[in-house]
Amino acid sequence: MPNRRSVFFVSDRTGITAETLGNSLLTQFDGFEFRKTTIPFVDSDDAVARALAQIDNCRTADGMRPIVICSIVDERLSKRMRECDACVLDFFQIFIAPLEQELGTKSSHAAGRLHGLRNHGEYFTRIDAINYVLAHDDGQSIKELDRAQVILVGVSRCGKTPTSLYLGLQCGIRCANFPLTPDDFERGVLPESVARHRDKLFGLTITPDRLAAIREERKPNSRYASLEQCRYEVASAERMLRDARVPVLNTSTKSIEELATTILLERGLDRHIF
After folding, report:
1. Rounded to the nearest 5°, which phi and psi values hold at 174?
2. H/E stretch holding 205
3. Who has the most CB within 10 Å: 39, 74, 151, 161?
């Protein structure tokens, strides 16, 4: 039975920063089951009081101190959070003071700088990327492929859509994705609509066993999900991509974040940080 501990991500804004950094730390501890709660917009005395009450109730129910991962900029409010009966990791207190000393200046102590709307140009870049990804998902459109920064190609259900969405939503990258079809396998070459953009192509592949398991959930007991069909499609797709000299990533054991980061690195693209 794993050890169970309650974890609170507390933030004066969305909580994304606290969640991202906190989860990175928690993954280093095996044998624990972390029950996670995010408390966003803790930006007033009343909000702090409610958060403290929720944390205290959890401590009483669990019989042990919760872990609180906090990203509150206001020094007075963060001090109140640190006084609760919990293991409190205050990211701003840990990192801001050394940076202030190194840079020889005080920080602005302004909340929401990372995930707020500061740069309208970056904001519209992100919206454009999201709209582009949605319009070019699963081969829906071949219009404006010259505007794509990346075009993902692979068999059905190999991870093209979630990777494209991550690139658009999190990185501001205009990404299109195209499934290879039975007609493509019969011809043995990539469709001309995407082949002409070879410098933007990135292939995704997957092990046949993993592909069959994914497809079985979608269409149980179908030829589409059979291991034989999956082996045929994967082998055909890999041969087509290899012949076209398209770089290929195997999605079987990689997270979406790893796939996206590798694609950005290989294509020399920069994330748009919002």
Report:
1. -75, 105
2. strand 201-205
3. 151
Domain hosting residue 219, numbered range: 120-267
* CATH number of the domain where residue 98 is located: 3.40.50
Mean pLDDT calculated for residue range 1-11: 89
Domain identity same for 99 and 124 = no
Check whether 88 has a pLDDT greater than 80. yes
Is residue 188 pLDDT above 70, yes or no?
Answer: yes
Instruction: Enter the pTM of the model.
Output: 0.71
Q: Within this chain, do residues 252 and 131 fall inside the same structural domain, yes or no?
A: yes
Residue 99 burial (CB count, 10 A): 10
Please give the angle made by the CA atoms of 73, 76 and 82, to the nearest 5 degrees.
85
Residue found under tokens 């702090």: 48
| Residue 55 belongs to a domain | yes
pLDDT at 17: 84
156 and 40 in a common domain? no
Identify the CA nearest to 178 among candidates 262, 244, 261: 244
